[in-house]
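Give me the fold.
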Amino acid sequence: MRSVSELGDLTGKRVLVRCDLNVPLDGTTITDDGRIRASVPTLTKLREAGAKVVVLAHLGRPKGEVNTKYSLAPAAARLGQLLGTEVTLATDVVGESAQATVAALADGEVAMLENVRYEPGEESKDDAVRGQLAERYAALGDVFVSDGFGVVHRKQASVYDLASRLPNAAGGLVLAEVEVLKQLTEDPARPYVVVLGGAKVSDKLAVIANLLKTADTLVVGGGMVFTFLAAQGHEVGTSLLEADQIETVRGYLNEAASTGKQIVLPSDIVVAPAFAADATPTTVPADAMPADQIGLDIGPESSRVFASVISSARTVFWNGPMGVAEWESFAGGTRAVAQALTEVDGLSVVGGGDSAAAVRDLGFADDDFGHISTGGGASLEYLEGRTLPGLAVLESREA
């Protein structure tokens, strides 16, 4: 992949930059601007190079229709604050407003097109339909820079098809993410510990299978842990359970035992009578959960064990909270894991998505960790060993 510095003189050139600005919102208020902040270095570099910068991004899932709920207006305003310059937002994606907005740019200025997912062709499974939209994107620019790591696993018009229609490069964010993931997959310093949480084990089956080959220890928490406990024959009450995955999980446990790998599961669970922030928490042994209770976090003893395993590692990758971390009564496990990652003597990686939001909500700073990924799904697919379309297409082309 070529870097921005290898694109040559960008003065006066219209540079289309695919960013990932898919930030969480409370109404129109951004609750975590991490992805926007992560886009600033590449955009600043392009501005300083005299480029006319045009940002392409998405927000939420408008499913090919204009929906003001998913307007990029809050992201454009916040990006402007961070860049210290106005970011003009077009009112459409490739229509008259987009064309006029781009045409009005002076060197070093920044504009943003509206949510690319307003266009039905953006996520189309039909190559020709996506290609038609990519042609309209390409007509607005001279050069393409891919800097939205959180979408490089998607074969979408602004990620994949556009890159093949203009001279392209990977932005600094994408290059940094790939470098970290290479460290996790090619020759990680050992012990190498992977911590997996989040709601569903089915979301992580492929990555578990692959990591059993490369990691030394898998630490499992979050909602997905109850399928593991059920596979061991334990009662899990009313907790989240994917019954159809029990046999698969049992196979992973057997494989780990036969190959000398460790899968560390919680020894105690924080349960409650209902899925509610104000529900009364109780700590019970993981093998003695009441049938009428729901598990919402790992317990304090498990938190200590998990923290010990993590802090003694040389390489750690973490994806997924240990419990319902947005509720204080059920945030203890996630807080303990985050704290342990800050104490790792080596590479500590927070794998994007809910994990990144959780550590910030709990008061940790980004620089407390070796790396906070901006793309949870893309990171997991990379660790699965899959080819990511948005990376594969970034081949050197003449600028």
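The longest strand covers residues 14-18.
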